[in-house]
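Consider the tokenized backbone below.
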């Protein structure tokens, strides 16, 4: 029977994974700030594109966070913009999950990627990819400042370990959009 010692096997697996991550630290952290008013359909902002291109040459294991210092009312308006765009149901895109319509969290999204430039371009709406924010398609988006922080981890870290780190960060930060952990 596969369930007989499942709890113990899971405990042992998670203990090994936790031990392997204990001293893991990013090699470096990079930050870009930009405004939502600078996100235009079909016109990628040069400063963001240049930064992402430089960062992508550094390595392939990244965890990133989009956040903002906008007020709760502005974040709620941002959520409304996202919801309107998502409700159009464009076959071209799959939008990230909306976790909280209240706009209480200043964290918009937590993710990881082996191709940071492409993944961020997905979120900004300049490339088609997996579930993303697709911000260039948001309707009546308020003009707020966004910050993208990206931490580069050693290329030797496993995909599984990177996912574990992303999941823990997502659960801790409770982003407005995207998955929260593996669930």
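A designed sequence for it:
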């Amino acid at each position: 029977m596969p369930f007989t010692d499942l709890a113990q096997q899971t405990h042992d697996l998670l203990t090994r994974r936790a031990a392997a991550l204990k001293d893991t630290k990013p090699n470096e952290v990079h930050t870009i700030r930009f405004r939502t008013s600078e996100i235009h359909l079909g016109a990628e902002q040069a400063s963001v594109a240049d930064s992402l291109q430089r960062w992508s040459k550094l390595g392939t294991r990244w965890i990133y966070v989009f956040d903002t210092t906008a007020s709760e009312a502005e974040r709620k308006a941002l959520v409304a913009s996202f919801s309107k765009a998502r409700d159009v149901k464009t076959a071209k895109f799959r939008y990230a999950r909306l976790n909280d319509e209240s706009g209480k969290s200043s964290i918009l999204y937590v993710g990881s990627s082996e191709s940071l430039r492409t993944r961020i371009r997905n979120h900004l709406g300049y490339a088609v990819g997996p579930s993303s924010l697709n911000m260039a398609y948001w309707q009546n988006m308020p003009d707020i400042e966004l910050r993208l922080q990206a931490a580069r981890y050693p290329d030797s870290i496993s995909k599984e370990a990177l996912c574990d780190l992303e999941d823990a960060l997502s659960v801790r930060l409770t982003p407005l959009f995207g998955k929260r952990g593996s669930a």
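Residues 27-173 form one domain.
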